[in-house]
UniProtKB/TrEMBL annotation:
Residues 323-412 form the Histidine kinase/HSP90-like ATPase domain. CDD domains: HATPase_UhpB-NarQ-NarX-like (cd16917). The keyword ATP-binding applies. It comes from Cellulomonas xiejunii. This is histidine kinase. The chain crosses the membrane at residues 15-37, 52-70, 77-107, 119-139, 146-166.
């Protein structure tokens, strides 16, 4: 049978009334023995077997019963125990103190159980009962005048005040420990929440990278396979060339995915054979456009201002360059999906000081080539997240000609000098 933990925790508390009863009887017996040794100092203290003796034993027993039976009602237990002190006045002032042991224990337990401000009336009532009982016992022992009053007040204050102070200190320490435990628990929950947020951010970043890589290459593969379907019967040689291009796109996608996996690994882990991991930069946009042209997309690249110098000097950070690369990659993939056959223009402009503008613009779909059916994606969401991560500004929307334009303004770390004439290089798609 499984033992009730709550019952196990109550056992030490249930022993307290018994201990108080035994201690009180021991003190009463000790006082009788001492007084019998010198009868001249008895002052009305009863001897063993006297009616007053048995009355005192009965009162002490009732105090212990009240302390045990009213354990769940500490205020009622304190008042009941304190009421036993006046009932013991028959033992005289020299032995009345034995009834205060249970009173002090009841006061301590009441202070621990309830806030002190709610115990004020109970504490005052208990102190008054103790003072009345001590005063009556002092009178029985022959005391008079101020001696009776002072003895009652001192005993009442001591019997209630001392355990009140001790209980308050212990309760304050318990509250402090509870508060520390609650704070530690809250910090653990906050730490877990931060870890969860970090994990979600990493998942989002990985999903964004996978989306950008796969969307770009798969869009090119989709365009080329569509051309293969038309060429395979009328132009077999051209179809073979297109198949080779599909293979190149597939290989490039696998390479980019491998680079992403390596970047996600531990920095101390050795890099697998096959060359260093390539970090996409502004300079890589030229190869990106060339790859799109090889896939059959009519796209051109124009640069203005010292784009290469800014990228090489570190004025545009590596994360910002990667964001610009991915935005161009995603914009070209979107153009291939939503506007097949439309002419695309990619422009890198560093003419204005303090920023580099990356613009991808496409026109209407070619005649007879409507956009293919597709499920809603997260391309624009990923672009916006990259812009926010690097402090860049992203703008996108439809053009007056019916096309679409995406503009990413990337801030630079240092001011750049504007050349007299922009350098322009343009590569036309086949």
């Amino acid at each position: 049978m499984i033992e009730d933990p709550a019952a196990h925790r109550r056992r030490p508390t249930d022993v307290v009334p018994v201990v108080c009863w035994v201690l009180s009887l021991a003190l009463l017996s000790a006082s009788v023995v001492i007084i019998q040794a010198d009868p001249q100092t008895s002052h009305g203290v009863p001897g063993f077997g006297d009616a007053a003796w048995w009355w005192a034993v009965a009162v002490l027993s009732l105090q212990a019963v009240a302390l045990a039976g009213l354990g769940r009602h500490p205020r009622a237990a304190l008042l009941a125990v304190a009421a036993g002190v006046p009932a013991m006045f028959v033992v005289g002032g020299d032995a009345i103190g034995v009834g205060l042991v249970t009173v002090m224990v009841a006061t301590y337990r009441a202070v621990l159980a309830r806030p002190a401000r709610r115990l004020l009336a109970t504490l005052l009532g208990a102190a008054a009962l103790v003072a009345a009982g001590v005063a009556a016992a002092t009178v029985r022992s022959g005391g008079e005048g101020w001696v009776v009053v002072v003895a009652g007040l001192l005993q009442g204050v001591a019997a209630v005040g001392l355990p009140f102070v001790l209980g308050s200190v212990v309760a304050a320490r318990h509250d402090a420990l509870t508060a520390l435990a609650a704070t530690a628990d809250a910090q653990d929950r906050e730490r877990d929440a931060l870890v969860q947020v970090a994990v979600e951010r990493e998942r989002t970043a990985m999903a964004r990278e996978l989306h950008d890589i796969a969307a770009h290459h798969l869009s090119g593969i989709a365009v080329m396979t569509g051309a293969i379907g038309r060429q395979i019967d009328v132009d077999p040689e051209g179809a073979k060339v297109a198949v080779a291009q599909v293979r190149e796109q597939s290989t490039a996608m696998l390479r980019d995915l491998r680079n992403l996996v390596v970047l996600l690994r531990d920095v101390d882990a050795p890099v697998e054979p096959g060359g260093p991991v390539r970090m996409e930069t502004l300079a890589g946009i030229d190869d990106l456009v060339a790859g799109a042209q090889a896939a059959g997309l009519p796209v051109s690249l124009t640069t203005a201002g010292p784009v290469g110098e800014l990228a090489a000097s570190g004025a545009v950070g590596p994360l910002a360059q990667l964001a610009a690369y991915r935005v161009v990659q995603e914009a070209l993939a979107n153009a291939a999906r939503h506007a097949p056959g439309a002419r695309c223009e990619v422009r890198l402009d560093a003419s204005d000081e303090g920023r580099v503008d990356v613009v991808v613009r496409n026109g209407r779909p070619a005649a007879g080539q409507g956009p293919a059916h597709h499920d809603p994606g997260y391309g624009l969401v990923g672009m916006q997240e990259r812009a926010e991560l690097t402090g860049a500004t992203l703008r996108f929307g439809a053009t007056l000609e019916g096309g679409w334009q995406v503009t990413l303004s990337v801030p630079t770390a240092v001011a750049t000098a504007v050349p007299d004439e922009p350098t322009t290089s343009e590569e036309e798609g086949r």
